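look at this record:
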Amino acid sequence: MSPRDFSLDTLFRANALRLASREATVDNIQRLTWAELDRRVENLAHWLLAQGITSGDRVALLLTDGTPFVTTLLACGRIGAIAVLLNWRLAPAEIGWIMGNAEPSLTFANPRFKQLLSEAEAGEVVLVDEWHDPQGAFEGVVSNDQPRKPLPELEPDRPLYMMYTSGTTGRPKGCLQASSAVATSALGMCTRRGWTDQERLLSVNPLFHVVGMQQVAAMIACGGTMVFAQRDDDAAAMLDLLHREACTTTSAFPQILLPWRGMEPLRDGAIPLTNYTGGAGPGFVPLYEFLGQEWDCHVVGGYGQTEICGFATAIDYADMREHSRAIGWAMPHVEFTILDPDGNQLPPGEEGEICMRGPSVMLGYWRNPEATEAALGHGWLRSGDLGTMDKHGLVYLLGRSKELIKTGGENVYPAEVDAVFQTMPEVADAGCCGVPDAQWGEAVKAFVVLKPGMELTREEITARFKGQIAGYKRPRYVEFVDQLPRDMLGKLQRLELSQRPVTPDQAA
């Protein structure tokens, strides 16, 4: 490792020395100190080298959240391998396409997800039991010393991971992030939030998602403890875990937070949660009101993207209430501007595209130079979102210029959903859009035109979608119509569709 190296592993090693006997991770079966976690990372890193994995090779992770996930990610970073973080909510065909694009040499997979690899070229597959079976292959590797070899010399801007994001053409793009970018983003989060090694994170956002990853990376940076909820935990189990482990911070989605209100969240008159990180904008204000008033919790909202390692702005709840549509001020490691379509910077108050730059911006999209140039070609990361910025640097979100649907923290592009309808012989035309949803923020609604004489029910549509596309991408509402609104060039007018009422009888 170069002496000028700066990476997530740099921060991790420092805490493994400074906080050696302090608790680093807690999951459903295991508690590890920083020194114990470092030993497991080192063992796995040398085992990977013995398997022929080296710098630049891809290693896929199809794992539930917990110590094994963190161990594998850090071991990949230690030898310069690129971790491909797979979304276990996807269908086998979607996983198969991603694996074909990434071409991993090795895959670590939880046994419960093995069927998702049925259409994938996964290389060698190592099963990682979430219960840490001491007889299992993974546990045998990480808990026993492996033959040591010299670690490879690594470039400072080497990639650490790839997260695949939905694409406007229906094909996802592999967002490639440098280990130094992940470390910078983590330190920026710690600085803005004032986190120290006394934090205890209740980690409920999946680590294949940038929100979950940024939170965990921040704990690695500041030396806090990572407490992992399990995939099968419901809201009640997560609340119990929060109290049992005295967790001080989380970034749980509204569908987890809202049920807590009726579950005696204050025990002995208190709750250990002292701060919360979430989205920003008018829709979040009612949610954050009870967090601040009933639980005395410090709420900070923000805006960001996978391409910039997570949250890039921050705004306190009080400022959210005062500034409608504001999404915050730039984090310490990010610079914002507003550009016109030609890439020119606009003065304060003028509407344009929200753009960012800084050391946490992605390296690019894996094997997709055209998309990389479109996103980064003007020297700024182009968000695809419309907004303004005032003279004090406060950024306001006006709307999405891309046709992105955000549901439960996940991104859905309508083209992905439309493509499934195109395979249905009964359908003459179909299109979808995002509609407001109290639980998920937005939900997918589909508008379907049937061919003459054909019949198709909402239940049949739901059944057709299963196995073709991830559950969160499937339409929650379906409206049958005679025709879809299109302009003179045939472009679907999705904005017009999104303004039509949603009724209970349209539920799919």
Observations:
- The chain has 15 helices and 27 strands.
